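pipeline/complex-builder :: batch 7 item 3
reading input block
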Amino acid sequence: MKKFGLFLKENKLFTFLCILVLILIAVAMLAPWISPNDPFKSNMANSLQGRSSKFPLGTDNLGRCVFSRLLYGGQNSLKMTFSLVILVFVIGTAVGTTAGYLGGVIDNIIMRFSDIFLAFPGIIFAIAIAGVLGPSSTNTVIALIVVNWVKYARVSRSLVMSVREKDYIKLARMGGARKYQLILKYVVPNIIPSLIVMATMDIGTMMLEISSLSFLGLGPQPPTPEWGYMLNEGRSYMQTSPGLMVYPGIAIFITVMVFNLLGDSIRDILDPKKEY
Amino acid sequence: MKRLLYLIPVLFGITFLTFALTYFSPGDPAVMMLSATGQAPSPELVKKVREQLGLNTSFLVQYLHWITGVFTGNFGISYKYSKPVLDLILQALPATFKLAGVSMIMMILIALPLGIISALHKNKTLDYVIRVISFFGISMPGFWIGLLLMYVFSLKLKILPVMGDSGWTSIILPSVTLTVAMASKYTRQLRASILEEISQNYVIGARARGIKERYILLKHVLKCSLLSIITLLGLSLGSLLGGTAVVETIFSWPGVGKLAVEAIFTRDYPLIQGYVVWMTVIYVLINMVVDISYYILDPRIRLEKRA
């Protein structure tokens, strides 16, 4: 615990960013308690209002509180982003580790399979999958998993291949460790840190991908608030109330930026040799 | 040459996945086709259309039928437009190429000098400024940049057209939108790869011999990082193609991206299939050109092949 405190003290930027991330998550999770109004309650009499003490960021075309919708929307965006990153990480790593450790025919099949996935330009494939499966937040996440798992599979595979021939693995094998024991106890812990760095650096990008899909209308369906889709809704009222498309954009921008900075700082801490 | 042969299984995989995607999707294509053209899907009519489309055969037969069509340029008939998919795509492709081409040229013109300057002035004011700006660029959603630009230049200042393709000024906003994110990313990658090259031993050697820093950079470092510059360019073309779908939708640019997004909402499967196959083949071809350019540019690879 003391060591952890020292680590936080030494890496001030990292600590600061972690606090920011925690604040973002807390604000999103506490949305039901801190939002001033019901995000779903529409009141046509109040539509497209400016900022006021009752509606801190005004109201949208249906008279719903934009600020409350932003808070709830953040909850949805963050939930989708985290489930996407975690699932891509787990699936990609599992497939890559299996391929890298077993080698041979299985490795070959998995790699040829991943070549095909890599041949698609990512977002186009994702749009097609999400579109065909039908618009919903689950399908958006599924589409983006299909597009993104390959990268993790490739990287974890090459990491496993470099670890596989190390002496401690050979010793463990001689010691009679079973295959899955070997993989889970000796191989995986050694490749996880680099993959975690990669995943943290990807959070921002994945969030942007999710928001583009929902912007196109492929994400969560109305009336569920989501930042990307709020931008889409707001764009028709650009002339009269530009706030509707400015605020959700700022929300995405700030959140993505904080996660990108966090990714960069984790990389700097774990890999100080590389100059970026 | 080996790369070319290698393309065949990849192309088969792509078409297979694309076809499987729409085959296993919920909904009966016959019903969708009828409702897309505004006819009531009565049972007899559905049955007739199913037969017409060959939907009563097995998955593999249907795939083989479709794939032979694809190789002869027959992507089927769009449900919504009742026109051949190929014609629709070929009609819309030039607009997308125009947009992507202009954006790519702008991206190179902006990112290349900025990346080099940033690396050259590492950890100095200029580098920080470029890094901060490009960091903002990669953290902003592209469609938001597009909307903001539209608001400022079309609605407030009224100097640029809002939507569609009407004269040369209408390409400015969509291409700038695409360029911002791409150029920011590319600048950062360029800076990183140039810095990596600079830390190589030969650079230290050249420095020790008293060769001027600028000369080392322009004559040696840039030449050696050319390969990674081109690789990154190929990769960014992929995201450029993807980005066009969103940007075209915002600005109503009459390209394939807009066509495809509309096709998704009308569940126009042949059109979606055609779009995915076309875009992917274009992307694969770009990457092949990148590979071939390695061969031409890097003497090490050429010698390896000969030996």
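note: The CA atoms of residues 31 and 42 of chain B lie 9 Å apart.
queue -> next item
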